[in-house]
């Protein structure tokens, strides 16, 4: 005769409780890591250092620094391109740091550093 109710010895409730505690702990760690990341700043340069852009982990531009020699009224387009390049690189750095935090968290779940979906 087959047993009804699934798990012999009632082992599942204890395991579920442990899983819930682990999930809550990981959620707190993830929130702390996210706050830490948001407070960090990432700077990138373009044009051999003529343009420097700093962004936060929240992906907000907080500073643009221009070398005097890059400000040429006859070539505004080059300056615009350098600002875009430096901004995109700084944002890429922030995104890379965010992905690293997420991979560490996913690795802690025993998912091999990524989600299976």
What does it look like?
This protein is α+β, with helices and mostly antiparallel strands. The chain contains two helices and three strands. Strands 1-2-3 form a three-stranded antiparallel β-sheet. β1 and β2 form a beta hairpin. α1 runs antiparallel to α2 (76-108). The longest helix is centred in the C-terminal third of the chain and has 33 residues, at 76-108. It starts with 10 loop residues before the first helix and ends in a 9-residue tail after the last helix. The mean pLDDT is 83.
Structural class: alpha+beta
Structural shape: rod-shaped
Rounded mean pLDDT score: 83
Which strands sit side by side, in order, in the main sheet? 1-2-3
Q: Estimate the strand proportion.
A: 15-25%
- For the report, how would you describe the main beta sheet? 3 strands, antiparallel
Helix content: 40-55%
Low-pLDDT stretches: none
Order of helices and strands: HEEEH
Annotation, overall tally of beta strands:
3
Distance between the termini: 38 Å
């Amino acid at each position: 005769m087959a047993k009804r109710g699934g798990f012999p010895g009632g082992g599942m409730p204890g395991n579920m409780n442990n899983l819930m505690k682990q999930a809550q702990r990981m959620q707190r760690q993830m929130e702390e890591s996210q706050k830490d990341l948001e407070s960090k700043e990432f700077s990138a340069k373009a044009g051999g250092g003529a343009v420097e852009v700093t962004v936060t982990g929240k992906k907000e531009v907080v500073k643009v620094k221009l070398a005097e020699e890059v400000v040429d009224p006859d070539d505004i387009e080059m300056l615009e391109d350098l600002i875009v390049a430096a901004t995109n690189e700084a944002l890429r750095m922030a995104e890379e740091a965010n992905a690293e935090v997420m991979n560490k968290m996913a690795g802690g779940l025993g998912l091999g550093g990524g989600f299976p979906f």
